[in-house]
Design brief:
The protein has 281 residues and is α/β, with parallel strands linked by helices. The chain is built from nine helices and nine strands. It starts with 15 loop residues before the first helix and ends with a strand.
Length: 281
């Protein structure tokens, strides 16, 4: 694993000897390949157990669970987003973050509080996901650091979540990438074939996690527009962007609605390239 953020502890891959010591359950999933220890990344149980081991070993997150139908986020990539945001607000002392669409895993608030001691408000449109997220928060005794809010209108992103008194340092989001359920499922099947497996649960996800009417572009532009309705609620609004062509259209639209600063941060994670877009008013 190369080219992660310099502060990302996973830059040199996984030290399975340490991980096995912290979580012996991982041993049943570890195999030797080309002289190195690894796991079968097409096996959802192996991936989930590896992630649990990483969270326990490096971030003191001793409990982490969610239903199989929810997304299982890769820890190194999620950590990268956190570190890049820390660079964006370098020098800020007390940091409060809004995590849009936190999901059952609640991964960004758990990591952000563990690494930088940030406070979070985490939203989601799925009540079941929020119930599971609450379990992850409570089991790790992070009730004072992470607040959950339910978005009761799936057409909204910030409206209904941001309160008059809210003052966030950052707003972050990992948006749905696909325009329909069939598009999302097709992509998942291709990922599984690339790993030489018919298993798709490793790349599963609930509808709201995977797709949004109009796809990533529609979600981002809705998010951008709604942020203009709350220009003083957050110092920076940010989001991951999968498709690079969406960056330019977002920047152009931002200029029309009062964005004063727009920034793109590229993230390289192995062979995968993604980006963070950041804007402020």
């Amino acid at each position: 694993m190369k080219s992660l953020h310099p502060n990302n502890i996973h830059n040199n891959g996984y030290d399975f000897k340490i991980l096995l010591k912290e979580n012996p359950i991982l041993e049943s999933f570890v195999v030797e390949k080309f002289g190195k220890l690894t796991i079968d990344f097409s096996d959802p149980n192996a991936v989930k157990t590896l992630n649990r081991s990483l969270l326990k070993t490096h971030y003191d997150i001793g409990y982490w669970d969610f239903p199989d139908e929810n997304l299982c986020p890769p820890i190194p990539g999620r950590v990268d987003y956190i570190h890049h945001l820390a660079d964006l607000i370098e020098g800020s002392s007390t940091v409060k973050v809004l995590d849009i669409g936190t999901g059952a895993s609640c991964i960004y608030p758990l990591l952000g509080s563990a690494i930088y001691d940030w406070s979070f408000v985490a939203s989601d449109v799925n009540k079941n996901s929020l119930e599971v997220a609450k379990m992850n928060i409570d089991k790790n005794q992070l009730e004072e650091k992470i607040e959950l809010r339910y978005q009761n209108n799936s057409a909204n992103i910030l409206e209904g979540i941001i309160k008059v008194e809210d003052k966030f340092t950052l707003t972050m989001c990992n948006p749905p990438f696909y325009a329909s359920e069939s598009e999302a499922r097709g992509a998942n099947k291709r990922k599984s074939r690339n790993l030489g497996s018919t298993v798709v649960r490793n790349f599963s996800g609930t509808d709201n996690e995977l797709w949004y009417k109009g796809g990533e572009k529609a979600f981002l532009h809705n998010y951008l527009y709604q942020s203009s309705q709350y220009p003083n609620a957050s110092l920076w609004f940010t989001s991951l962007v999968s498709k690079k062509e969406n960056v330019k259209s977002l920047e152009d639209s931002g200029k029309k609605i009062g964005v004063t600063k727009f920034k793109k941060i590229q993230m390289n994670q192995g062979n995968k390239v993604t980006r963070i877009v950041c804007w402020k008013f």
